[in-house]
Design brief:
Layout: E1 10-12, E2 19-27, H1 29-34, E3 42-54, E4 57-71, E5 78-94, E6 106-110, E7 115-117, H2 119-128, H3 143-162, H4 165-174
Parallel strand pairs: 5-6
Antiparallel strand pairs: 1-7, 2-3, 3-4, 4-5
């Protein structure tokens, strides 16, 4: 099995020329195993990054497309979620890490840092773009699980119908 290499998701900043350069990264199941994320069953996501170097800043225009497979919240079977979103990250350099920088959508690196590991950025943006509720259309859910759920729900309803007033009813009827 191919492991996520330490170098596989790295952009060598020191080698960047002024202007725009294109990078491409592939995210699979191993990528999520690296982050010890058990929720992702499978992944097939392409991340393209246009890296634009302008003076002291580096702009990353990222686009993630593909499919992520997670368990359905309702029936627990595989659910393939489409991945298709874009985001921009600005890389700024500071002389010392205590320096105050407006860090919204920007990544702060110490001046002189030669490599940018893209793994955390790629991972974070995939996670925040995942829908909170993940399930199939009801017709696509595993029918065996759904009928079992309906059975349990039905039985619970029956139990509720029996108690707590059933006993009371008997008492009333006795009078
Ligand atoms: Zn389902």
């Amino acid at each position: 099995m191919k492991k996520v290499g330490d170098d596989e998701y790295v952009i060598h900043l020191s080698g960047l020329k002024n202007g725009t350069q294109a990078f491409s990264f592939y995210v699979d199941k191993n990528f999520f195993e690296y982050f010890e994320n058990q929720d992702v069953i499978d992944a097939d996501v392409e991340v393209s990054v246009a890296v634009e170097k302008t003076g002291s800043c580096i702009l990353l225009a990222c686009k993630s497309t593909g499919t992520l497979t997670v368990p359905c919240d309702r029936c627990l079977k595989d659910l393939a979620l489409p991945v298709d979103f874009e985001y921009n990250v600005t890389v700024r350099f500071v002389k010392d890490s205590g320096e105050d920088v407006d860090s919204e959508d920007s990544l702060v690196l110490e001046a002189g840092q030669a490599d940018l590991d893209m793994r955390q950025i790629i991972y974070d943006y995939i996670m925040i773009n995942l829908p909170l509720q993940r399930f199939h259309d009801i017709k696509d859910c595993d029918p065996a699980v759904i009928s079992k759920m309906n059975f349990v729900a039905g039985r619970d309803a029956e139990l509720n119908a029996v108690s707590p007033f059933a006993g009371l009813k008997d008492i009333i009827n006795e009078k």
